[in-house]
Amino acid sequence: MKRLALIILLLPVPVLAQDNQVTNCQLGDAVRVIEVVYPQATALPCEVQYNKDGATNVLWRASAEAGYCEKKAAEFAEKQRGWGWSCMAVAAGNTQADTENQPEN
Q1: More confident residue, 14 or 56
Q2: What secondary structure, in 3-state letters, does the chain show?
Q3: Is the pTM of this model over 0.90?
Q4: CA 26 to CA 18: how far, in whole Å?
Q5: Which of 67, 69, 66, 68 is nearest to 49 (CA)?
Q6: Checking DSSP bridges between strand 30-37 and strand 46-52, what pairing results, if any?
Q7: What φ, ψ does residue 33 adopt, rounded to 5°?
Q8: What is the mean pLDDT of residues 84-93?
């Protein structure tokens, strides 16, 4: 048992489970979702998905550079803010309806 605990502690962080990162952007009644998705529940590979009007597109993917997807998603959210959208990070399990009544940034 001690060996297992030691092995887990020595594993690099990317091997541990990774939750998706979700940012909702709203302008009036319109909502856009920027999501960093981890298909294998690890930091890599990852992809940035963008949901607009019910259609989801993959904007970026990474399999070798940790932090790339998170950086691109943050930059894209900032670009949305520049266009007048209010963007807020939310827990991955929250739905669009859960975030529509939250205060805007």
Answers
A1: 56
A2: CHHHHHHHHHCCHHHCCCCCEEEEEEECCEEEEEEEECCCCCCCCEEEEEEECCEEEEEEEECCCCCHHHHHHHHHHHHHHHCCCEEEEECCCCCHHHHHCCCCC
A3: no
A4: 26
A5: 69
A6: antiparallel
A7: -125, 125
A8: 88
- Distance, in Å, from the CA atom of 105 to the CA atom of 101, rounded to the nearest integer, reads 12
User: How far apart, in whole angstroms, are the C-alpha atoms of residue 48 and residue 74?
Assistant: 10
Cα separation, 41 vs 88, in Å, equals 23
CA triple 75-81-87, angle to 5 deg: 90
